[in-house]
Amino acid sequence: MMQGFNTRSQEIILNPYILFMTMIKINIPGKDETLEIKHLVLDFNGTLALDGRIKPGVADLLKKLARQLQVHIVTAGTFGGVENEVQGIPCVLKILSGVDQTGQKARYVEDLGAESTACVGNGRNDRAMLEKAKLGILVIQEEGAAAESLLATDVVCTDIVPALQLLLNPLRLTATLRT
Description:
Blueprint: E1 10-13, E2 24-28, E3 33-37, E4 39-43, E5 49-50, E6 53-54, H1 58-65, E7 70-75, H2 82-85, E8 92-95, H3 101-112, E9 117-121, H4 127-132, E10 135-139, H5 147-150, E11 155-157, H6 160-168, H7 170-177
Parallel strand pairs: 4-7, 4-9, 7-8, 9-10, 10-11
Antiparallel strand pairs: 1-8, 2-3, 5-6
């Protein structure tokens, strides 16, 4: 079997305490709406990691977010070794099969409850989950970002660290999303 090609999807819970979460509330003036985010779904390669290695500062931010949200990392495992890279981060790791990853990611968000989910991604296969989520954040980093995913998001960031910091500092999102 080729490295990174997975024929069956797997879900691994990396910390049993993730079931005790709260939520992040984000008030959006002008829309008379308060986002109540319980789940954070993140793509791995191109979003949290570069060439299969988690980016500096990301693990610490995810640990902070895991105190407020249930963190989910979804990946095809293109570079392998994702389990080792996210070890110590309280999260659910979802390793996708090689077939219809766009649809798998979208269904994963729907199963969690799209109305209470924020997603962060960059690739073409992230488009549907970014569009379905209550809050979609696209990151444009070293791998770039797919144009069709850009059009499906609410917020665009130039790096994963500021994207995660938006969720830790919700007033930044309020300022960006107000009408």
